[in-house]
Write a structure and sequence with these properties.
It contains three helices and nine strands. By secondary structure, it is an alpha+beta fold. The chain folds into two domains: 111 residues; 36 residues, no CATH class. A five-stranded antiparallel sheet has the order 4-5-6-7-8. A four-stranded antiparallel sheet has the order 3-2-1-9, with no helix packed on it.
Length: 153
Amino acid sequence: MATEIRCPMTAKHHATITFEQGSGNNVAQVLFSHLVRPMTVTQSNILGQKIELQGFILSQDAVDMNKVRDRSCSTHLGRARMDKDQNVMPCDFRRMERYAVSLLIDRKENQLTLKIPDGFERSLFRNPDEFDELRTLPEIQQLSCTAHQKDTR
C-alpha cells in the first residue's frame, strides 16, 4: 500500500507525493505535473504529524551542456575558440544543475508548504511554453491537498 498526496498548484498542474510503506521505511516519491523529472529526495524527517522532505530537481540539459563545455575548455585550442566566440558563455561559466526543493507536509491538516528558492529553468518543463506563466509562482507556496491510499500490488 502507498499513501498518495495530491496538491493542486495551478488550475492545470499539481504536485503528487507518494509514500511507499514497507520494510519499516517510508520512501517518498515527489512528482510535479509540469516538470520532466521527479524530485530527488536527499533528506526526510518526520516531525509528529509533519513530514519534511528536502532534495532537488536535476537539470539533465545543464549536466549535458556543462560536460560539453568542460570538454571544449579542457584544451588550449578549445579554450581559445570559446573565448573568441561571442555567442557562448566563457569557460568558467557553469549552468546550475540542481534546483533546490523543500516540502513540509502536514498530514493532519492536509497542507503542503512548498519552497523552491532557485526557481526552475525552461529545460525542466514538460511544455517549455508554460515556463513564463509558471515561473511567476511564489518561492514559498501553501497548498491544500487530498490524500488517499493506493494499492501498489
